[in-house]
Design a protein that fits this description.
This protein is mainly beta. Helix content is 7%, strand content 60%. The N and C termini lie far apart (70 Å).
């Protein structure tokens, strides 16, 4: 039962064999305040569990451990209602209804989702495929897109930005007088047919037109699109192409973190004027334009080299401390 007076139920069973185990749980309006008991009993997880948690959970969960180290989980009609979470004297995060359904498999090297779908007040995500669990983001030979390497299937996530700001206040760096009215961000990953012995995947991240109000006036941020096609073999991952388009910048290129090239154009003034009405830029301002072609490579001794040509015009950068960098023209070859 909940210390605050609510109640719920939890039933379960445990099966143990020599080389496998299985746990089945069925809850009905189980108070989430029990999570705080876990926080007290397992202090090593205290930093990852809020000190104040409210709400209740209903649904069925089955978890099985197999002889080869694989763990299978099946979630059926899991609902978390009226969730609240906060640390002492911090903002209160809320979510009225979250749902999870589907199957999840954890192997030593992969995460496999089978019609796995999760929803909250502000987002939804669906996974139907396998992804790599071994990701490294450091070193010249690594790439933030390396988690696509083991992709076989598809995944999509959609976020409603105004709902996100209401549920998790303070997560988005908005000004106090700014309010999001409408807008959505979507990320989608799909595996593509292999070519030349290489696995291929496509990543698309896009936003709709974002509408907001700040100081009593309407603000509009035009859509942003990022697309990349990634090819990988056992030892190497490369972006066959990547493209970023928006009202204030564009980039087209190919390569990885060891070598590649890109054509870039950016209007700093438009970027600043687009974000300033709603985003707290901490007294930083930008103006001017820049365009050019750049290429990069890293040698075997981990030395990075950057080359290219470009031009910046009417460049003005004001830092929070008041320092101003101003150049009418910058030309590089």
């Amino acid at each position: 039962s909940d210390p605050s007076g609510g109640g719920g139920s939890l039933q379960g069973s445990l099966q143990l064999a020599e080389d496998r185990w299985q746990i089945e749980l069925q809850s009905e309006s189980l108070p989430l305040s029990v999570v705080t008991l876990v926080r007290r009993r397992l202090p090593e997880f205290a930093d990852t569990i809020p000190s104040q948690v409210g709400g209740d959970a209903t649904g069925a969960l089955r978890i099985a451990g197999l002889p080869d180290g694989v763990i299978e989980a099946s979630l059926d009609g899991v609902q978390v209602r009226n969730l609240t979470a906060a640390e002492s004297q911090s903002r209160l995060w809320t979510n009225q209804l979250a749902t999870v359904d589907g199957e999840l498999v954890l192997t030593p090297g992969r995460v496999i989702g089978r019609q796995l779908r999760a929803t909250t007040d502000f987002a939804s995500a669906t996974i139907n495929g396998a992804f790599s669990r071994t990701v490294s983001l450091v070193g010249a030979s690594d790439n933030p897109l390396r988690w696509l390497e083991g992709l076989d299937g598809s995944a999509i996530a959609e976020i409603d930005l105004p709902s996100l700001d209401r549920a998790l206040p303070g997560l988005l760096p908005l000004k106090q007088d700014a309010q999001l009215v409408s807008g959505r961000a979507v990320a989608e990953v799909n595996s593509l047919p292999a070519s030349g012995g290489q696995r291929r995947s496509q990543l698309v991240v896009r936003s709709d037109q974002v509408r907001a109000r700040a100081s009593g006036r309407a603000v509009v941020i035009d859509p942003i699109l990022l697309k990349a096609v990634v090819a990988t073999d056992q030892n190497h991952l490369t972006a066959e192409e990547f493209q970023w388009t928006s009202a204030f910048a564009s980039a087209v290129g190919q390569g990885d973190l060891r070598s590649g090239s890109a054509n870039v154009e950016i209007d700093f003034g438009r970027l600043s004027s687009t974000l300033r009405p709603i985003v707290d830029l901490a007294r930083t301002s930008l103006d001017g334009t820049a365009a050019g072609n750049i290429s990069w490579n890293a040698s075997a001794d981990e030395v990075w080299r950057l080359s290219g040509s470009g031009k910046a015009t009417n460049l003005v950068i004001t830092l929070p401390g008041g320092e101003v960098f101003r150049r009418p023209t910058i030309q590089s070859d």
